[in-house]
Amino acid sequence: MISPWDRWYSTSCCLCCHVRTGTIILGIWYMLINAVVLLILLSALNDPVQYRYHLTSSELGTDIDVMDDANICIATAISLLMILICGMATYGAYKQHAAWIIPFFCYQIFDFALNTLVAISVVVYPNTVQDYLQQLPGTFPYKEDIMSTNNMCLVFAVLLFIGCILSFKAYLIGCVWNCYRYVSGRGTTEVLVYVTTNDTTVLLPPYEEAIAIPPKDPPPQYMET
């Protein structure tokens, strides 16, 4: 009987790429995104007056400083950690080191769980969509038109959008997992072949010594009394 893990196992992704190639491309793509975010955050630290975002009192009633120095430092540390994790996954897929792919896979699971919780919160508390729209600044495009839409239609649109994102993320998780299984399987096969070869070399004596070994004496004949 084929297990569900083996049933969904495949060495190709996106209908044309190998899972190793797909994991390498995905890791590089995540590194580029986090590198751009890191550059923006570093620019905000160097010039806080230009990049700091203030919400005026006419929008929320008070002046709120959203991007302060502490939040920027935390976001910078997270971006650096993400670049490290994505770099490890890219290196592990390229050099076929399965252990290096695990942190990136764990990050994908964590991100998928967070998005699932967002979808559940929208289903349980549908009014949160309207509350979120009310918190948007007045200059947000089509804010009034969106708020005038039926709440059930908004919830359905948000759930459909989140569902598409979750499906895509689940597919990427499957690709990375298949890459981990492929690399891990190749490493196990190479180790077994290496050990078998060494055992064979150790157990078999050299040809000259094998010829020099005298044959054993035959057992004594059975004598009837």
From TrEMBL:
Please indicate if the UniProt record lists Ligase as a keyword.
Answer: no
User: Record's GO cellular component, any one?
Assistant: cell projection
> Any signal peptide, and if so, which residues?
none
Q: Where in the cell is it found?
A: Cell membrane; Cell projection; Endomembrane system; Endosome, Multivesicular body lumen
Q: Which ranges does the record mark as transmembrane?
A: 28-49, 70-94, 100-125, 152-172
User: Domain of life, per the record?
Assistant: Eukaryota
Q: Which InterPro entries match?
A: LAPTM4/5, LAPTM_transporter
Instruction: Tell whether Transmembrane is among the UniProt keywords.
Output: yes
* Keywords attached to this entry: Cell membrane, Cell projection, Endosome, Lysosome, Membrane, Transmembrane, Transmembrane helix, Transport, Ubl conjugation
**Chief subcellular location:** membrane
Membrane topology (UniProt): Multi-pass membrane protein
Query: Tell me, what's a Pfam family for it?
Result: Mtp
- Role of this protein: Required for optimal lysosomal function. Blocks EGF-stimulated EGFR intraluminal sorting and degradation. Conversely by binding with the phosphatidylinositol 4,5-bisphosphate, regulates its PIP5K1C interaction, inhibits HGS ubiquitination and relieves LAPTM4B inhibition of EGFR degradation. Recruits SLC3A2 and SLC7A5 (the Leu transporter) to the lysosome, promoting entry of leucine and other essential amino acid (EAA) into the lysosome, stimulating activation of proton-transporting vacuolar (V)-ATPase protein pump (V-ATPase) and hence mTORC1 activation.
The record describes its quaternary structure and partners as:
Homooligomer; upon reaching the lysosomes. Interacts with MCOLN1. Interacts with NEDD4; may play a role in the lysosomal sorting of LAPTM4B; enhances HGS association with NEDD4; mediates inhibition of EGFR degradation. Interacts with PIP5K1C; promotes SNX5 association with LAPTM4B; kinase activity of PIP5K1C is required; interaction is regulated by phosphatidylinositol 4,5-bisphosphate generated by PIP5K1C. Interacts with HGS; promotes HGS ubiquitination. Interacts with SNX5.
Q: Which family does it belong to?
A: Belongs to the LAPTM4/LAPTM5 transporter family.
Return the protein name: Lysosomal-associated transmembrane protein 4B
Lineage, opening ranks: Eukaryota, Metazoa, Chordata, Craniata, Vertebrata
